[in-house]
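Q: Trace token order:
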Amino acid sequence: YDGHSDLHVGITNSKGVVYNYDQEGVHRAGSGWEQCISVPLVQPDMEELLQHWDDLLEEFSLEEAWLPQRYEEQQHNCYTFALAFINRLRQGRGREPLSKAQFTERFLIPHTREASRYLTLHQELAHRDFYIVPLPEQEQ
């Protein structure tokens, strides 16, 4: 990622299938997201919530709101899909919905900052001659 194009957003089920929305509607992808930034929203040990998550995600993805003709690049897009799903889940658990700004600030910015640091370091290493020497093991 070069920082100059839009990012695409999706939500995974517990089996790693990514549900994502674009001008062609909702897609379910088992691959093609290998270089994504993963933002964990649920603890892995919350099995009851994960099953509910999977069921709700499938139901949610079939709603009329996510038909292809409803897609609008600026106002009704992949980010809207992801945030609306998260807010549906929060609502079902008696929690207040998150605004785009709140969700971005709390969940996305910390992960994208970290990824940006790694990408910058990788680009610097890739464009310079470096030799990495392992440190000698310390005596025990």
Notes: Residues 26 and 61 are 6 Å apart (CA to CA). The chain has one domain: 10-126. DSSP finds three helices and three strands in the chain.
